[in-house]
Write a structure and sequence with these properties.
By secondary structure, this protein is of the alpha+beta class. Helix content is about 40%, strand content about 20%. The protein has helices spanning about 5-30, 85-100, and strands spanning about 35-40, 45-50, 70-75.
């Protein structure tokens, strides 16, 4: 079955557009951020997986799987790094507080 050139061209253009959107979506989530909502004043609401507890002391900590129920809701600077020093210290403090709770 032969398709006219016009149909083939549109199909290939659509396929290329679809593929480029898929690639850009993957690139945006490569930093682990599941959601990034920009708010007025240069602030953002970010959602990203917590850092795996056993990796908090590593030079390069690792985020939990995105399907994990342990998701961080962060409100603050849009350039917040889920694996940056500030976030690592925050999650270390949280682990320490949880460990010191009775029961």
């Amino acid at each position: 079955m032969k398709f006219p050139l016009k149909i083939r061209t549109r199909f290939l253009a659509g396929l290329l557009l679809f593929a480029s959107v898929g690639v850009s979506g993957t690139a945006l989530s490569a930093d682990g951020i599941l959601l990034k909502d920009e708010m007025p004043g240069g602030l953002c609401h970010l959602r990203f997986p917590a850092i795996r507890e056993e990796t908090l002391s590593w030079d390069r900590p690792v985020l939990k799987d995105s399907s994990s129920d342990d998701i961080i809701d962060y409100y603050g600077s849009c350039d917040h790094d889920p694996l940056g020093k500030e976030e690592i210290e925050s999650q270390k403090d949280q682990v320490t507080r949880q460990a010191s709770r009775p029961g």
